[in-house]
Amino acid sequence: MTRVIAGSAGGRRLQTPPGRGTRPTSDRVREAMFSRLEHLDVLHGARVLDLYAGSGALGLEAASRAAASVLLVESDRRAAETIRRNIADLGLRQARVVAAGVERALANPPDPPDVDLVLCDPPYDIGEAELAAVLTAVRPWLADSAVLAVERSARSPEPTWPADVELIGPRRYGETTVWFAEFVPEGDVA
């Protein structure tokens, strides 16, 4: 059972997409991850981009915890429909889903860049080069001091970050590592 951990929808169940194509982040990992994000003070009022949304567990957790807006990107149409149902069932009106591949969804960044938090939980079989390309493509979406949280297998190496994204630090939770990084515009680098 997947559920929202805390916030306005805390304790409520999430539907998961049919089939075996998604791997929802465990409640334990999500709880630890969001504790870290709250410590970094990036959730309340944040504009969030959830890439490879799957069941929507990460983005909907952010919405439940007072994010101002959440855009969930999921290429699988059945999974995207499940996310839509979860949004409606939970009454999280600040969340919306785009049924598209991540690369296509990132092709038209907002002007000005306004994303405060990126949640990225790609399938574990996505290679490091493909992940690096996605992290580069998300760069034009980032507001100053935006935080990125990238979930990977604990056996995966550190992601390759764009030049103006600095590692805050990894956190390992069993077989999962979440890499936290911050966008520091070129002129702000010390």
From TrEMBL:
The keyword Transmembrane helix does not apply. SUPFAM superfamilies: S-adenosyl-L-methionine-dependent methyltransferases. It comes from the Bacteria. GO terms for molecular function: methyltransferase activity; nucleic acid binding. GO terms for biological process: rRNA methylation. InterPro entries: DNA_methylase_N6_adenine_CS (IPR002052), RNA_MeTrfase_RsmD (IPR004398), SAM-dependent_MTases_sf (IPR029063). Keywords: Methyltransferase, Transferase. Residues 1-27 are annotated as: Disordered. Pfam families: Cons_hypoth95. The keyword tRNA processing does not apply. This is 16S rRNA (Guanine966-N2)-methyltransferase. It comes from Barrientosiimonas humi.
